[in-house]
Design goal:
heterodimer; A: mainly beta; nine-stranded mixed sheet; six-stranded parallel barrel; 58% strand; B: alpha/beta; four-stranded antiparallel sheet; 10 strands; 34% helix; 25% strand; globular; binds adenosine-5'-diphosphate; binds magnesium ion
């Protein structure tokens, strides 16, 4: 593992040294370390790049780390990772991707993740994206996620992209079965001329299934963001999506919801609020002695916390 | 000591005058209550003093220093605190964050808790709460006052602090004023309609239609305010309802 990977790992997964649990570390399209545990098996795919992660039924409180790092320019990485989470398991998966460019050429990571969440299983999935490096090459991350939640299953996905990623198009799709629940919390900050796009498509298939999509974002400079959420309620279910964005400078943010209720007992809500930082929030913090810049930083920190 | 000289505030390109030639001095250690009908300009006056609203004419001096052109931040650092009539709600900012910002540094948890105790909130239940729409009007009003207790500056402005504190008692609020005054040895200006708050004033100022229509010691002003059955002798137009 090279030093750039070590630095990136610390940022994206708060891991210093060897992770505590099963792990697979991907460095410039190669495997830089892998460990399975008794309950969590990680195997390389035979037909394409990527891994299969098998989590035994009933596994409780374990963690899996699967960070991916790109340490220089001119890397075009594509990976397929599949998670099979056994019935009743309760685990935390820490993913994350760091892209470091040192030259003029761009580098990109395209991660395609599929989650098969078994009956009554509970998964927390954490994913942090970051771009670093002095190179002028664009840092591109395009994550694609597909989720299938069985009866009573629960998946909470928290994604964060705060710095340095020049372009990202995120696609998240899934199906939620009876009593299952999908929660997605996304935090994005874009600067300069960055672009970030999020596309959710969720089908609520099972009785009393639910989805909650929550996006908090800050767009600065001339950056652009698009948030699309498609929720189809095909039975008695609850769906909620929320896009809350702060725009600054000459940035632009669009929120495009598409809710379809195909059943009389489907209850779907979309909320979107886009605007500049509230003047009264700035003023309150200034009456406590903060400068306008300090107040602004505090408000954004809190908003994306 | 705070001195306001010929303060005028116009809006709508000078077509509407909210404050008209206000002259006022608040002495050190003084407890002043400003009252008057709704729309009289009381909140505007507090905003002008704390720098939230620009003035069209006039000058403001704090301890003899002209602060007329100072920013909100500069005035805050010079020793002015302001508890808003409508406290601000945030996203992702906790009670702890606001108290720490009020003090100006990270401080001992016990000290933070004292400020919440001062306003009758159980620290354990509130310290890590987000200051957002999940707090009731009364709760957020008390957190606003706790921030004042954490700042302890030489001049504090409270804009209708009694609003929404029904669950708490007036006595507690009055104790807070007492404690603040004792610890800061500073001046307190409270905008209020409440007889019990008017009752502890050193001086009462009546502001109506942007003008000071009466000013004097409590014993002199209060009986006249309460006389004439809820109808305030000094107010232009509508009277004040002291029982609201
Ligand atoms: N920013 C503003 N622009 C225009 N009119 C305002 C503004 N702020 C206050 N006013 C008006 O000024 C008057 C005084 O308001 P305010 O100071 O809030 O009164 P009070 O606090 O005594 O009830 C009201 O008529 C109010 O509508
Ligand atoms: Mg007012």
């Amino acid at each position: 593992m090279n030093d750039t990977t070590k630095d990136l790992l610390a940022i994206i997964s708060d891991v210093f040294g060897e992770p505590d649990g099963a792990y697979n570390i991907r460095e410039d399209s190669q495997c830089a370390g892998r460990k399975s545990t008794e309950n969590i098996k990680i195997e390389g795919k035979k037909d394409k790049p990527g891994i299969d992660i098998f989590i035994k039924e009933g596994t409780k409180g374990e963690k899996v780390f699967i960070p991916a790092c790109i340490t220089h320019s001119n890397v075009d990485d594509l990976v397929y990772n599949d998670f099979y989470v056994g019935e009743g398991a309760d685990v935390t998966i820490v993913a994350g991707c760091g892209v470091h460019t040192d030259g003029e050429e761009s580098s990109q990571h395209n991660g395609i993740h599929r989650f098969f969440v078994g009956k009554n299983a509970r998964v927390i999935y954490l994913e942090k994206h970051v771009g670093v490096g002095e190179g002028t090459g664009a840092r591109i991350i395009n994550p694609e996620t597909y989720v299938e939640i069985e009866e009573g299953g629960y998946l909470e996905m928290e994604t964060t992209q705060i710095k340095g990623v020049d372009s990202t198009v995120r696609k998240t799709g899934g199906v939620v079965k009876e009593g299952g629940k999908l929660i997605v919390k996304e935090k994005i900050m874009t600067h300069g001329s960055q672009h970030a796009e999020t596309n959710f498509t969720v089908d609520l298939e099972g009785f009393d299934s639910g989805v909650d999509l929550i996006s908090r974002s800050v767009a600065r400079d001339t950056s652009t963001q698009v948030f699309r959420s498609v929720i189809n309620g095909n039975t008695r279910c609850t769906g909620h999506s929320e896009c809350d964005a702060i725009i600054m400078d000459k940035a632009s943010v669009s929120a495009i919801p598409e809710l379809t209720a195909n059943h009389i007992d489907a209850s779907l809500i979309h909320e979107a609020a886009i605007g500049k930082i509230a003047g009264e929030q700035l003023m309150k913090l200034m009456t406590l002695g903060l400068t306008e810049k300090e107040a602004e930083a505090k408000i954004i920190d809190g908003f994306l916390r | 000591m705070l001195e306001l000289k010929h303060i005028c505030v116009d809006v709508d390109d000078g077509n509407k005058e909210i404050l008209k030639d206000i002259n006022l001095t608040i002495k050190d250690h003084e407890f002043v209550v400003i009252t008057g009908p709704n729309g009289g300009g009381k909140s505007t006056l507090a905003k002008v003093i704390s720098g939230l609203m620009p003035l069209s004419e006039g000058q403001i001096f704090l301890d003899g220093v002209d602060i007329t052109n100072d920013s909100i931040t500069q005035r805050a650092n010079a020793g002015i605190s302001f508890a808003f009539q409508q406290p601000v709600r945030f996203k992702g900012i906790t009670v702890r964050d606001l108290l720490e910002l009020s003090v100006g540094e990270k401080i001992d948890e016990n000290r933070l808790c004292l400020y919440l105790h001062d306003v009758g909130l159980c620290p354990k239940d509130y310290i890590d709460r987000d200051v957002d729409g999940s707090l009731s009007g009364g709760e957020i009003k008390r957190i606003e006052i706790a921030m004042i207790m954490a700042r302890k500056t030489k001049l504090t402005l409270f804009d209708e602090p009694e609003a929404g504190i029904d669950l708490w008692s007036f006595n507690n609020l009055i104790d807070v004023f007492g404690k603040l005054q004792k610890e800061t040895k500073g001046s307190i200006v409270v905008i209020s309609h409440q007889e019990r708050i008017l009752n502890i004033a050193d001086r009462i100022i009546v502001l109506s239609e942007g003008k000071i229509t009466a000013e004097g010691a409590k014993d002199e002003i209060l009986p006249q305010l309460l006389g004439d059955q809820m109808k305030c002798g000094f107010c232009i137009g509508e009277g004040i309802d002291f029982n609201e």
